[in-house]
Amino acid sequence: MKILVLGVGLQGKAVLHDLERSEQVREIVAADMNAEAAEDHIRRKGYRKTSVVHLDATSTEHLERLLRSVRPHAVICMLPPHFGFKVAEAAVVCGVHFVSSSYTGDLVRLDQAARSAGVTLLPEMGMDPGIDLVLCRLALEELDQVHGLHSYGAGVPEPACADHNPLRYKISWTFDGVLKAYKRPARFLADGREVRVAEGKVFWPEYGHTVEVPGLGTLEAYPNGDAVAYMDTFGLGREVRAMGRFALRWPGHNALVNALSELGFLEDAPVDVGGCSVSPRQFLVHHLTPRLTFADDERDVVILLARAWGLKDGEPRRVSYWLIDYRDLETGLFAMNRTVGYTAAIGAQLILNCTITRRGLLNPARDVPPDVLLSELKRRGMTVQKEVEDHGAGTGI
């Protein structure tokens, strides 16, 4: 099989690493706007299957020409989310399967066209969303009646290097993307009531809580996007009293970022600084990135938790699925790179080896076989642990 990878950034590098090691994949084409840097990376890694081409993701014509000239069996899009629809649309036109780690968003508009073209579109195939959705499915399948579902995702520095700056955070994902996510509104259910969190308010204390992570201690949770939208994905009904998707950070991070948000540092609108037009958010990106960079011997840790509670055989039960992964210092790949990039690579291979045969717009929560994904993650050094509490489950927190 032949796979085209768009974007050779932090997560794209992990996709290439995984595909290079796959016996199923015979050829990989990596496309990036900075082809020279991508070629340098390929040379340094000694990759044998991968070639590099220039990418202009802003041009629909370029994308279609690229897909037609490369003629891949699948394209894995590791570009910023706003490019996703344009790439998926070109993939449908050219009859190429599409995988990405970004949210579904406008891709719903391509479902029928993809079906007609015999194309599979598999977004949300990363860490969060991605692995977390499959873990949620597993937890829900353990219950006869669901009263609540919470999922958590974190990409943070491990404790040994978490205190090296006041934010207790270091960059394993594009920092611009992180700050944009901090501004997103959110929606969740609590005690049967829908809670809407306005843009830029996710770090308000009343929306957060703490979570105890085995072997790591206490982390703080804040709402992460629209959890209520996933109720239909999982087929959940009115008996559900709580539904939440949360991200985790070390204590102190949320309060500090909330202060920055309240002071306008996450805003996009430029301000005049000595005759120069500067966005406050872009200032933070450029000023903080060198101060929040991991050293070569420092590791990040990814934490994923899916926790469902309700009734099993008439008795209260709470089921938790955990995945905790650390940076691989041998390859240099962060846990964030591994959980996002490897998962996307697995998704493409599951489509091409016919493990996934449905066409149109899919979602990991419904369409990725959990046992197969967990087996593939285990082969890549990631293991999932399950915890079942039969009594006194109370709330999901």
From TrEMBL:
Cross-referenced SUPFAM superfamilies: Glyceraldehyde-3-phosphate dehydrogenase-like, C-terminal domain (SSF55347), NAD(P)-binding Rossmann-fold domains (SSF51735)
All copies of domain Saccharopine dehydrogenase-like C-terminal, residue ranges: 126-381
MF (Gene Ontology): saccharopine dehydrogenase activity
Protein origin, superkingdom: Bacteria
Domain Saccharopine dehydrogenase NADP binding per the UniProt entry, residue ranges: 3-122
One Gene Ontology term from the biological process aspect of the record: lysine biosynthetic process via aminoadipic acid
InterPro entries, per the entry: AASS (IPR051168), NAD(P)-bd_dom_sf (IPR036291), Sacchrp_dh-like_C (IPR032095), Sacchrp_dh_NADP-bd (IPR005097)
Assigned keywords, A-Z: Oxidoreductase
Pfam families tied to this protein: Sacchrp_dh_C, Sacchrp_dh_NADP
GO cellular component: cytoplasm
Name of this chain's protein: Saccharopine dehydrogenase, NADP-dependent
Organism: Desulfacinum infernum DSM 9756
